[in-house]
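[agent] plan:
  1. take the single chain provided in the ticket
  2. run structure prediction with default settings
  3. attach structure tokens to the ticket
  4. add a short note for the reviewer (M.T.)
[agent] executing step 1
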Amino acid sequence: MDKLKKYAENLSDSDKRAYYLKLAEAGKQAVQDQQRYNYLIDANGKYSTRLTEKRLTRDMDILDGEDKMSDRLPAYSYRSYWRYMDLIGSTQVVDYLHQHTNALFTKKGKVKKNVSFQQIDQLLYYHSKYKKKFQQSADDYNRLTLARKVLVKRQKKLEKKRRKEEAKKRKEESIKESLKRAQESSKAAQGSIANDQNKQNANTKTSSATSMSSSNDSSPSSYTGNNNDDDNNDDDNAQSAEESSDDESSSSSYDSASMSKDISSILHNSRANQSLEQ
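[agent] step 2 finished; step 3 output follows
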């Protein structure tokens, strides 16, 4: 472009000199534009995490300089314009997904407790469409992949805890049932002994035997345990176990349709703005 500029400056024809000078300036702008664009791509061949909509809009100003590139290099100008506009739309989506990805993690980078598989899987699905070209999506995809493994471990841990509590509950119920049968057996044995004593006393004909028989009849003939308290304790323990089981499950409602709608809206608005500017 510098050689073209020197060539134009030595021309005697003023019209040709003006034409080639503007062409040299437009070519210089095209080289600068390509350098700016190349700088957006990192060493991995992906669009850098530094990429923002604001930066892309600023870089496009070179297309509308004093010596408009569209006048001298219309094909290159048209291709560069749409390259930027398509990139702006994709960058908006990547930034949107990045914000939703960050929302699943604490400030220390740990996965929040109420995160669901649905949230992670949907973000993985969308990031998979951009991770080959955008470093930000590639990084977020890796973060979400690790986060999903954390959820799997949490799920296994909760399942193990649930089975352990169920086994404990079954053991407690078995012990209570054994105690109940033992109490019933003891009660039946005491009742049988009391009946035998009554029969023996009834056969005694002496007055002292009659008196003793009357005394035995008036004394308690059987043992009754505090079954009402045991039954109440059974109900309380069962209720406590159920509440503990409910606490283990942490459901998280997530509107997956809203994300699809938002992304479609971003891309649609981007294309609409492109058409209006053209």
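[agent] step 4 note for reviewer: Residues 215-253 have pLDDT under 50 and may be disordered.
[agent] ticket updated
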